[in-house]
Fold:
Amino acid sequence: MESAAAAISEKIRTTGGWRGEMLARVRGIIHAADTEIVEELKWRGTPVWSHGGIVCTGETYKQVVKLTFAKGAALPDPSGLFNASLEGNVRRAIDIREGDVVDAVALGSLIRAAVALNLASQSKANPRRIRQSQ
Structure:
């Protein structure tokens, strides 16, 4: 069975053009922001980056490369990267169009914030039980 990382690399290669290049670029930014990020494929081959839960997905459409953050509505976005799916209560997305310049520092900060939120949610859901000695 092919690994998710290899499948995402193949998707980038076969997508080609500016969309393939952009997906490869944001993938690199994601990995630079969090070296423990895990690549997965879900929903008929959609690239997914996870750490303690889904951080974001990367989809390619005719006019955009879309990064959808699973808990984007709960994330600080001081650089204003989110520009799509703004009406929802949970997700937020970044639509990147041909010729757009991605702010790697701001995107890296957003990735780290998403991971921190996932890990905080995980620890709240699974608190450690501490036994008191008798």
Remarks:
- The longest strand covers residues 54-60.
- The CA atoms of residues 12 and 20 lie 5 Å apart.
- DSSP finds three helices and five strands in the chain.
- Residues 4-118 form a domain with the Aspartate Aminotransferase, domain 1 fold (CATH 3.90.1150.200).
